[in-house]
């Protein structure tokens, strides 16, 4: 009966499999978000939930309850401060390094690139073990210092952040810009603030956002080294009050999505990235 | 960090050779140029290499934490075999499933003509979801597939399958972890294979058809061989990803017998730093991941051959 199919119908039939795959995937990825929203916002216990009660008792009370939590604001503040510090250290360390590689030491490029992906090989829990092994024994004050997580978060985010900054520099031809600026009489400071920073803005912003999302979600090192951060609070709160915990998860998810949307909007005007940088960054997954 | 040394030493030796043939001024210039990278190197040594060295050194000490010995490493291997095997099993199964589903989804998205935005939405969403992980993901799935989850209820009432009717599935057990891990494994695979699938030329398919090949011949002789290196690379990446993941599985079940959970548990208990066990286990973890990532780097070269 094959001949009965017109080419158009056959083409449509051949898309049946792929379309089913896409629909199933969409279901799998959206379903947990929907069920989280329901549990956070509807005060109907699961056994009582039927089509008849599906619209009952939707309330923001679970969300409101989070803000009354004694440790919510302090731990959020801690994590935001850690994120900010990590962003600052990352930029101060990596921008000059990447500039140096591009302007003076192109031959060091592959070595530096290799070094920046090394953190993939040391999983967060092993890094935590390393912090315990080395710093607890040799520099106790540092181990106990409230900012001591910052350098390790810089390391954890390094593969993403260096790639982002490096791609930004590749796209704008730093050397020509710097030569032009210098030959027009600008000093280093002026070149940096008036030429480099504006041109690199989108890649610096995306490096900063990536760093911030890593820090705001990092759980492994914090819990292993008994530091109190926002993720460790979320975990502890979920154990105590599942509905509130789920509302908190929903809120965190929303905030992260907003951050990422903000990132897309902020970096869009300068979309003329190089072909290389458009490639997906393969090993980005290392979930803590 | 064995690899770091392996790579850095020959490179340094090569540079030294080149330097000797130049004048003292050129040498100074060179030194000056490299000096710009000093802060970066120092930072990396202090906060990545020294901690790693600390782990490996304590891993290769006797069980009371002194001297050089392979005692702890073998004790960790035999004594915590359950955690090691559990982690390997979880990583391999979740990586195989992620590889299959990820490739299928990437193919479906890359070949879809309508709607136009589909492909970019899939790519953008994958970029976000591949980084999901963490404890939040565990909470999301509790509400869906937990004992009191919405999905559990819908599946039970919709198609009459009680997920918790047998002991087979539990969100806090092996197949629950596998399901949850797919949430970041599949998107990571999509990111890895999309460029490879874009590299499949329509003309290859036409050529195969003109030579009398069926769809099956095309996939067996052309499509899959071209995609194979990317898929293998993706598998290794997904494996390493699952092997090092801690937060999600810990939040799903704090009692889970997996390597990272075990290490964290031992570290939290061992405040005096006397036991060598967590460090030996961490060393094993680093060895396994280094092997997987090394393999990934090797196959990636081949995978990029057909990509524009």
Characterize the structure shown.
The complex is a heterodimer of chains A (288) and B (308). Chain A has helices at residues 7-14, 16-41, 61-68, 72-103, 109-117, 124-138, 140-144, 150-172, 174-183, 188-217, 220-224, 230-240, 242-267, 275-278. Chain A is mostly helical. The radius of gyration of chain A is 24 Å and the shape is globular. Chain A starts with 6 loop residues before the first helix and ends in a 10-residue tail after the last helix. The model of chain A is unreliable at 270-288 (pLDDT under 50). Chain B has helices spanning 2-20, 24-35, 38-59, 71-79, 81-111, 118-129, 134-145, 150-159, 174-198, 202-210, 215-244, 247-252, 259-269, 277-303. Chain B is globular. The two termini of chain B are 34 Å apart. In chain B, 42% of the residues are buried. At the A-B interface, helix 2, helix 4, helix 5, helix 6 and helix 8 of A face helix 1, helix 3, helix 5, helix 6 and helix 7 of B.
Summarize the SSE layout with pairings:
The complex is a heterodimer of chains A (288) and B (308).
Chain A: H1 7-14, H2 16-41, H3 61-68, H4 72-103, H5 109-117, H6 124-138, H7 140-144, H8 150-172, H9 174-183, H10 188-217, H11 220-224, H12 230-240, H13 242-267, H14 275-278
Helix pairs in contact in A: 2-13, 3-13, 4-8, 4-10, 4-12, 8-10, 9-10, 10-13, 12-13
Chain B: H1 2-20, H2 24-35, H3 38-59, H4 71-79, H5 81-111, H6 118-129, H7 134-145, H8 150-159, H9 174-198, H10 202-210, H11 215-244, H12 247-252, H13 259-269, H14 277-303
């Amino acid at each position: 009966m094959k001949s009965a199919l017109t080419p158009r119908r056959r083409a449509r039939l051949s898309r049946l499999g792929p379309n089913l795959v896409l629909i199933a995937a969409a279901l799998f990825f959206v379903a947990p978000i929907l069920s989280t929203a329901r549990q956070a916002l509807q005060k109907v216990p699961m056994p009582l939930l039927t089509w008849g009660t599906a619209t009952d008792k939707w309330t923001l009370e679970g969300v409101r309850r989070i803000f009354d939590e004694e440790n919510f604001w302090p731990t959020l503040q801690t994590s935001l401060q850690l994120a900010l510090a990590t962003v600052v250290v990352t930029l101060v360390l990596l921008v000059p390094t990447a500039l140096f590689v591009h302007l003076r030491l192109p031959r060091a490029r592959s070595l530096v690139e290799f070094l920046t992906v090394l953190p993939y090989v040391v999983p967060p829990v092993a890094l935590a073990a390393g912090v315990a092994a080395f710093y607890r024994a040799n520099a106790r004050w540092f181990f106990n210092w409230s900012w001591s997580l910052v350098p390790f978060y810089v390391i954890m985010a390094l593969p993403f952040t260096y790639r982002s900054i490096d791609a930004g520099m590749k796209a704008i031809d730093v050397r020509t810009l710097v030569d032009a600026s210098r030959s027009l009489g600008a000093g280093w400071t002026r070149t940096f603030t008036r030429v480099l920073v504006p041109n690199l803005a989108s890649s610096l912003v995306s490096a900063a956002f990536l760093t911030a999302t890593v820090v705001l979600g990092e759980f492994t090192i914090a819990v292993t080294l008994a530091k109190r951060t926002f993720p460790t609070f979320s975990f502890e709160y979920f154990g105590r009050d599942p509905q509130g915990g789920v509302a908190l998860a929903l809120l965190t998810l929303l905030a992260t999505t907003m951050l990422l949307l903000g990132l897309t909007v902020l970096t869009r005007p300068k979309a003329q990235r190089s072909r290389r940088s458009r490639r997906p960054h393969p090993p980005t997954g290392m979930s803590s | 960090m064995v690899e770091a040394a392996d790579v850095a030493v020959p490179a340094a030796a090569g540079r030294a050779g080149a330097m000797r043939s130049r004048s003292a001024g050129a040498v100074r210039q060179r030194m000056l140029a490299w000096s710009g990278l000093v802060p970066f190197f120092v930072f990396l040594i202090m906060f990545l290499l020294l901690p790693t060295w600390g782990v490996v050194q304590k891993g290769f000490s006797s069980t009371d934490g002194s001297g050089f010995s392979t005692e702890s490493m073998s004790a960790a291997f035999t004594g915590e075999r359950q955690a090691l095997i559990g982690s390997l099993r979880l990583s391999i199964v979740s990586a195989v499933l992620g590889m299959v589903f990820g490739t299928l989804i990437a193919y479906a998205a890359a070949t879809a003509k309508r709607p136009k935005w589909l492909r970019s939405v899939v790519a953008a969403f994958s970029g976000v979801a591949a980084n999901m992980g963490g404890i939040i993901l565990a909470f999301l799935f509790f509400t869906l597939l937990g004992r009191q989850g919405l999905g559990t209820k819908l599946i039970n009432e919709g198609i009459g399958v009680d997920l918790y009717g047998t002991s087979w599935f539990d969100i806090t057990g092996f197949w629950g972890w596998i399901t949850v891990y797919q949430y970041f494994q599949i998107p990571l695979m999509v990111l890895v294979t999309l460029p490879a699938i874009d590299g499949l030329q329509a003309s290859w398919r036409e050529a195969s058809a003109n030579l009398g090949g069926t769809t099956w011949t095309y996939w067996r002789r052309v499509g899959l061989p071209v995609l194979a290196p990317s898929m293998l690379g993706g598998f290794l990446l997904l494996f390493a990803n699952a092997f090092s993941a801690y937060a999600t599985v810990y939040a799903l079940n704090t009692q889970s017998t997996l390597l990272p959970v075990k290490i964290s548990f031992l570290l939290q208990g061992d405040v005096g730093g006397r036991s060598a066990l967590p460090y030996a286990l961490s060393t094993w973890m680093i060895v396994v991941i280094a092997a997987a990532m090394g393999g990934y780097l090797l196959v990636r070269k081949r995978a990029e051959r057909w990509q524009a």
